[in-house]
Amino acid sequence: MVKSEKDGGGGQRAEWIGGAVGKGSERSEAWIWWKKPDEWAEVIAGWVDKTGQKGVVLTFYELLNGDAVKGEDWVGMEDEVLARCLTPLVKKGKAQVFGEEGEKGVKFF
């Protein structure tokens, strides 16, 4: 059993993906989060502030593999995972994700 964060545990760090969720459903794939998406969002937002990237458009490739991010913990993350981690920033109006699969970009505010 997973302890909640308030009880000193890591909270919910597994997320089932694909397929239906519910009684009798088969779930065969899960993401196991080292940091939860909202935690990654905070880390990325901190990098944006620290490096002056507000108002700049970055491709997912640049954000995941570019020279500017060398040494950052998220380097090499999959596009789909990055998109999930940017969702909290989008919901707060701090970022906008645009483009199509394989050509996505993000602008930070």
Task: Jot down its keywords.
alpha+beta; 109 residues
Write structural notes for this entry.
By secondary structure, the protein is α+β, with helices and mostly antiparallel strands. 31% of the residues lie in helices and 17% in strands. The protein is built from three helices and five strands. It has helices at residues 37-51, 60-65, 79-91; strands at 14-17, 29-32, 57-59, 95-98, 105-108. The strands form two sheets. The protein has a three-stranded antiparallel beta sheet. Strand 4 (95-98) and strand 5 form a beta hairpin. The longest helix is centred in the middle third of the chain and has 15 residues, at 37-51. The model has no long low-confidence stretch (mean pLDDT 84).
User: What letter string, H or E per element, gives the SSE order?
Assistant: EEHEHHEE
Mean pLDDT: 84
Report the end-to-end length measured between terminal Cα atoms: 39 Å
Helix content: 25-40%
Number of strands: 5
Uncertain parts = none
Largest sheet properties: 3 strands, antiparallel
Radius of gyration, in Å, reads 16 Å
If helices are DSSP runs of H or I spanning 4 or more residues, what is the number of helices? 3
State the secondary-structure class: alpha+beta
Instruction: Report the sheet-strand fraction.
Output: 15-25%
**Spatial strand order of the main sheet:** 3-5-4
Shape: globular
